[in-house]
Design a protein that fits this description.
With 88 residues, this protein is an all-alpha fold. The chain is built from 4 helices and no strands. Keywords: Membrane, Transmembrane, Transmembrane helix.
Length: 88
């Protein structure tokens, strides 16, 4: 594997991990929402819609782009949970 290809692979993996961590960071907001300290529901709703579009895009590729799928699926679920708990 060429050095540039290896760098692209490393950056892609790092970006995927950071994306998952970004959506996992919704867990404290979900806990606050459930405890009665509601957060703003707009940002997690927009994040959820964004992740849905990325997952659709990645699955529609000739060769499915699994790093994008893996990075965005947590955002779909955690964004939805955060949104729902913020409006309840």
């Amino acid at each position: 594997m060429e050095k540039k290809e290896r760098m692209v692979l490393v950056f892609g993996r790092i970006a995927s991990v950071l994306s998952v961590l970004m959506y996992v960071s919704y867990i404290p907001q979900i806990m606050n929402n459930l405890a009665g300290n509601k957060g703003n529901p707009i940002q997690p709703m927009v994040a959820m819609v964004n992740c849905i579009f990325w997952v659709i895009y990645a699955t529609m590729q000739k060769k499915k782009d699994y790093p994008i799928i893996i990075a965005n699926v947590p955002g779909v679920f955690l964004g939805a949970i955060t949104f729902i708990t913020a409006i309840m």
